Amino acid sequence: MTSETDLATSLEPSNPLAAARAEIDALDDALHDLVMQRAEVVARLAASRAKAGSPSPLRPGREAMILRRLLARHQGPLPPTALVRLWREILASSSAQQGGFTVAVYARSPDLDRLAREHFGSLTPLRSLPTASRALSAVAAGEAQVAVLPLPEEGEAPEDAWWMSLDSPRLQVIARLPFLATGPDSLPEALAIAPGAPDPSGADRSLLRIEAMGERSRAQLTGALTAAGLAPRLLQLRRDGGLLRALAEVDGVLEAGDPRLAALPVDRALPLGFYAVPERGVIG
Ligand SMILES: O=C(O)C(=O)C[C@]1(C(=O)O)C=C[C@@H](O)C=C1
């Protein structure tokens, strides 16, 4: 069917195309009403003092709870990835409504830009910076509110191992991107870093930096963490002269002052923040 016949037949009232389009128009109006209504509620929230004094409008834990709830009730032909993309745009514009934010991305690969865009929305200003430390400095200086950095990998170049010098608790990991990944194609992943602590989502994982002088094997560190109730899901080690630095990922929320940290036989144990456990969709 050409577009002219398409248009002509759609004008006939008994035509199925016209009927479907009339239905779509009514649904679009209903969706639009709800989106406008949602923005009104966010405006009310922003005007109230409920979030006064916090450095950023972003509540990544709350966002993860919203997305998990919607994914759990999701049905029908719309792919879950499309559902998440729609809501990421809604959530980003909702944060923008509350003051807005700029994202500093370490421009190591176009994937990081893409992950930042998909997570923080297509209208959010992105600044691509040549190093991880420049992206973190932009956040520390208030020129950006979030940094998007690559997920740490063992053995990466020292200048890429940004976690070694992350100034926590001033800056902390707040999110892991993408929130929904449906297959190996969605790799690589990234972490988002922002001022202050994230909000828990009910299913979180924490990052912990450990520093120890002298020799410790991976098995010894794993044993010490496990004995303290912090069994690591992942443990990355870096040796620098006599100093051993380790990055541990543990289940749950781990914050400064947690009594489990006091039990660790290391020189320093610094929580670096936490993030909502991402959803891993069915590969199909
Ligand atoms: O719940 C909040 O604190 C909000 O600001 C609302 C809202 C939303 O649109 O649902 C917006 C931004 C936050 O990152 C989380 C949730």
UniProtKB/TrEMBL annotation:
SMART domains: CM_2
Domain Chorismate mutase per the UniProt entry, residue ranges: 11-102
EC number(s) recorded for this UniProt protein: 5.4.99.5
SUPFAM superfamilies attached to this UniProt entry: Chorismate mutase II
GO biological process terms held by the UniProt record: chorismate metabolic process
A molecular-function term among this protein's GO annotations: chorismate mutase activity
Pfam families: CM_2
InterPro entries hit by this protein: Chorismate_II_sf (IPR036263), CM_dom_sf (IPR036979), CM_II_prokaryot (IPR002701)
Protein name: chorismate mutase
Organism: Belnapia rosea
